[in-house]
Write a structure and sequence with these properties.
The longest helix is centred in the middle third of the chain and has 20 residues. This protein is 31% helix and 18% strand. The chain is globular. It is built from 16 helices and 20 strands.
């Protein structure tokens, strides 16, 4: 596309003093048709000043401050890391002030249902799997070899209602304190996967002498669900080969039972969806994320639960959630987690404002404030009904926030442990992420990514720019894609076999 054909940059809010490039802007061009000429070529997603901005004045995008001018910025100039800087901001924490508007934002529900696997405990799965869960790294290879042996035997072909075997291995489970946040995280994650709606039966496998004892897990979380969760240790089973044989034998016994469960119509209130973004770019906040936000609102209207996460990546945009908190208690929970993170990164010589990665910046994102605005857009506009710990299963329906790191595999692991049966993941730079036993549905923010990584991307949101598809129309398309995936349509990451190594519990505390 030549300079003459370049579409004008898009201003996203009337109060903004920057606009986002829709097309490549060549060196020496004037994307606005006036003002300063560009000193270098720019990719789509980067920002152009729509008016002169004085040194020290706020830079506004989506109606919010994303940074401050490091010097005089001329009309038409490129606005990025060289002239837009982060500094502590005084965001308004008027908790619940927008609650009524958030309630009014809930769309009208329809009679939509999905075909899922109904469990005896009332949960509903989007997949039907057997989970092998290592309590400690010492048993990791053992359960992987057992799972591989079953998969390579071809026996799963005889059980069409069984979607597979998932081996959940990790680097933890011993050399750690038996109390504190790291311990609590790991316990919640291990039990959350074993008792997941997408898991028909689970087998814990330990070494035997580790800190994370199977008996402690059952004592803390047990109950009626113990009937489909069992356990064994390598030391008691007679070593590695004997344990693998025992695991394989138990799987063979479980397969006919798990295969008896078939899909049946279920209300959407049984769905829990994890919202994620990774490899974000300048398009994320104007295409895929707001469209996913509209789909989230539709899910909430139908009684489903949607989980927003990645606490460091809402920094600077938290007021958009606080303003629609269902109560002061919910707002205070979120603020408490943000305070914890500020202290946590200080202790570890980090800063929350250093979050945008090199890929984010190459895609046009400049500060954590800008990145956070796009991240929060995934959550739509409905009330924030609760805030939960990492890996904790929400009890509230609707929009829930889970405290997690921003690192994708760690965050998704927490969401799945909390009961998410499906992950929806937006990306602008590209991602090869996958997850199991809950599949990941990936949305491309731009046409270029969808074309170049078509084998990894499930849905293109770039046509919101190239074909002027509305947020509402794309949001409904995502909503339908979510339902189809919940009913068994395979995602690109499932087709590629991704997800076996993305089980990464959040490690907090000393390794001893």
């Amino acid at each position: 596309m030549g300079v003459a054909e370049m579409r004008p940059p898009r201003q996203l809010h009337p109060d903004d003093n920057v606009a986002v490039l829709i097309d490549n802007a060549p060196k020496d061009s004037r994307p606005l048709g006036e003002g300063e000429t560009l000193t270098a070529a720019l990719a789509p997603g980067h920002k152009i000043a729509t008016r002169a901005i004085a040194s020290g004045k706020p830079i506004i995008k989506l109606g919010q401050t994303i940074g401050f001018a490091a010097g005089e910025i001329a009309l038409g100039a490129h606005v990025h890391s060289h002239n837009c800087v982060f500094r502590a901001h005084a965001a308004e924490y008027d908790s619940s002030a927008g609650l009524e508007a958030a309630r009014a934002a809930i769309p009208n529900a329809t009679s939509r249902r999905f075909a899922g696997f109904q469990r005896d405990n009332g949960q509903v799965g989007t997949r039907n799997m057997i989970a092998l869960v290592s309590t400690v790294n010492c048993s990791a290879t053992t359960i992987r070899q057992a799972a591989m042996q079953v998969q390579q035997s071809g026996i799963l072909q005889d059980y069409p209602n069984v979607d597979g075997i998932v081996a959940c291995t990790h680097s933890l489970g011993c050399g750690m304190a038996s109390e504190g946040p790291g311990w609590d995280n790991l316990q919640r994650v291990l039990w959350g996967y074993a008792n997941h709606p997408n898991v028909g039966a689970a087998l814990f496998v330990g070494l035997g002498c580790e800190v994370m004892q199977i008996a402690k897990l059952k004592h803390r979380f047990g109950g009626k669900d113990q009937t489909r969760i069992s356990g064994l240790t390598i030391q008691e089973s007679g070593g590695t080969r004997a344990t693998i044989a025992q695991i394989v034998d138990q799987i063979h016994q479980l397969l006919p039972q798990i295969n008896q469960v078939s899909r049946a119509p279920c209300n959407l209130e049984h769905l829990t969806i994890g919202l994620q973004c990774g490899g974000s770019d300048g398009y994320s906040g104007i295409t895929a994320n707001p469209a996913l936000g509209y789909a989230s609102d539709l899910l909430v209207a139908h009684g489903a639960t949607v989980i927003l996460s990645e606490t460091p990546e809402i920094y600077g945009a938290e007021q958009l959630l606080l303003q629609r908190a269902a109560s002061k208690e919910v707002a205070n929970k979120l603020l408490k987690h943000l305070d914890w993170w500020q202290n946590y990164v200080d202790i570890n010589n980090g800063t929350l404002d250093n979050n945008p990665s090199p890929g984010n910046k190459a895609g046009g994102l400049t500060t954590i404030l800008e990145k956070s605005l796009g991240a929060v857009a995934k959550a739509g506009n409905t009330p924030l009904n609760d805030v939960v710990h990492y890996g904790e299963k929400p009890t509230a329906k609707g929009l829930v926030f889970m405290d997690t790191p921003g690192y994708d595999p760690v965050s998704v692991t927490g969401q799945i442990a909390g009961g998410a049966q499906l992950i929806v993941f937006t990306t602008g730079r590209g991602s090869a992420f996958g997850s199991t036993p809950a599949p990941t549905l990936k949305l491309a923010t731009n046409d270029r990514l969808f074309e170049t990584m078509h084998e990894d991307m499930d849905l293109n949101c770039g046509d919101m720019i190239s074909e002027n598809i509305s947020v509402e129309q794309k949001g409904r398309e995502i909503f339908e894609k979510i339902i189809a995936t919940a009913e068994g349509a395979t995602t690109k990451s499932e087709q590629l076999g991704l997800g076996d190594h993305e089980f990464v519990p959040w490690q907090i505390g000393a390794v001893m």
